[in-house]
DNA sequence: GTCTATGCAAATAGTTTGCACTTTT
DNA sequence: AAAAGTGCAAACTATTTGCATAGAC
């Protein structure tokens, strides 16, 4: 699915709910699908202010983001930074996230075994599964190395004190 | 591990960090381990006010909860209700959660296949896994039935209109 | 013209923090 | 006595909302 196809889908979505296609909504929509990064509401608001086009207020950014999530054009990700992150779904299969607790780097992964086991767990408990949220927290490769270097320095310093 | 054993563990934890065992901390600690439910900071604060004992302020409740999480006496769970829930770890194996989006009911489950697949995913991406967070959202058995009854009523009503 | 959207600033909600005073060690 | 803890109220942060005005249909 390409950019203009999804744009039409957005217009259809608005129409079915008797919502209006405003300049602000179009601008936000386009900007959101122009990035492949995860971004926060505040980040998006920053982009809107920095780039030219019809002005968009913070309130409208928040309201439009909620709308896009409802319409399943965006998904949210809470990386534990106190603010929600968003990512568009264009061309993205379902996936879960790995979050680096040192630098905030986010990697995506998916595993069919996990999906299956989740469905079974829900079934066992009598739940009708609607959606799920899996986040793995740890240190990315670079930050793991950094941590190892620090640990090495600490080890040498304390052996000096001991010895 | 029984109540008094974990209490001693708490005292040891405080000692190693040169923290003091105050009445407030002891009261909060005991109350938290007296429940097997998930609870929020505000709920705990409510319990503290309702029950007799040395007064505990809201700030101290929050500060002590953070301390207990750091010490790994408690774990947090974000059930998407805008407030964090806590649960103690006494006698609980690691588990993940199923959350009912209608009534808020929480069930626990665990599956070794999920744990394994997570470790593998982290490894593939070069991450050192520290912890993870898996929540399945859906409708519990009771709420699923309720939804089905509502759907049935809607179906009948619309067939009347059509016919 | 009607109904929805926007911008602004104020409100919200859960949580955190600065500071003067109290308690534990 | 020294160091840490507490309570209070104010601060904080991300997000939401009320309301008057502007814009899409």
CATH level-two architecture of the largest domain in chain A: Orthogonal Bundle
- What's the number of helices of chain A? 6
What would you call the quaternary organization? homodimer
**Number of DSSP E strands of chain A:** 6
Which CATH first-tier class of the largest domain in chain A would you pick?
Mainly Alpha
Q: Kindly report the average pLDDT value of chain A.
A: 93
Q: What is Rg of chain A?
A: 21 Å
Cross-sheet strand order for the largest sheet of chain A: 1-3-2
Summarize this structure as a short list of keywords or feature phrases.
homodimer; 163 residues; alpha+beta; Dna Ligase, domain 1; 2 domains; 3-stranded mixed sheet; 6 helices; flat; DNA-binding
Polypeptide structure, described:
Chain A is flat and about 75 Å long. The mean pLDDT of chain A is 93. Chain A has 163 residues and is of the alpha+beta class. Chain A folds into two domains: 1-92, Winged helix-like DNA-binding domain superfamily/Winged helix DNA-binding domain (Arc Repressor Mutant, subunit A, Orthogonal Bundle); 93-163, Dna Ligase, domain 1. In chain A, the strands form two sheets. The first copy, chain A, has a three-stranded antiparallel beta sheet with strand order 1-3-2. The termini of chain A are far apart. The relative contact order of chain A is 0.10. Chain A has six helices and six strands, in the order ααβααββββαβα. In chain A, helix 2 (23-33) packs across helix 4 and helix 3 (41-50) crosses helix 4 (58-70). Strand 6 (128-139) of chain A pairs antiparallel with strand 6 of chain B, so a sheet runs across the interface. The first copy, chain A, binds a DNA duplex (25 and 25 nucleotides) through helix 2 and helix 4.
């Amino acid at each position: 699915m390409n950019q203009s196809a999804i744009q039409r889908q957005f217009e259809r979505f608005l129409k079915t709910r008797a919502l209006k296609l405003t300049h602000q909504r179009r601008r936000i929509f386009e900007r959101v699908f122009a990035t492949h990064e995860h971004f926060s509401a505040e980040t998006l608001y920053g982009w809107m202010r920095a780039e030219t086009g019809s002005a968009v207020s913070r309130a409208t950014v928040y309201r439009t983001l909620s709308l896009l999530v409802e319409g399943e054009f965006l998904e949210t990700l809470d990386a534990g930074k106190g603010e929600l992150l968003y990512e568009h779904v264009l061309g993205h299969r379902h996936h879960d996230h790995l979050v680096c607790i040192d630098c905030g780097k986010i990697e995506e992964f998916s595993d069919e075994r996990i999906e299956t086991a989740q469905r079974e767990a829900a079934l066992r408990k009598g739940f009708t599964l609607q959606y799920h949220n899996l986040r793995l927290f740890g240190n990315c490769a670079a930050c793991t190395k950094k941590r190892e270097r620090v640990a090495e320095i600490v080890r040498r310093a304390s052996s000096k004190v001991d010895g």
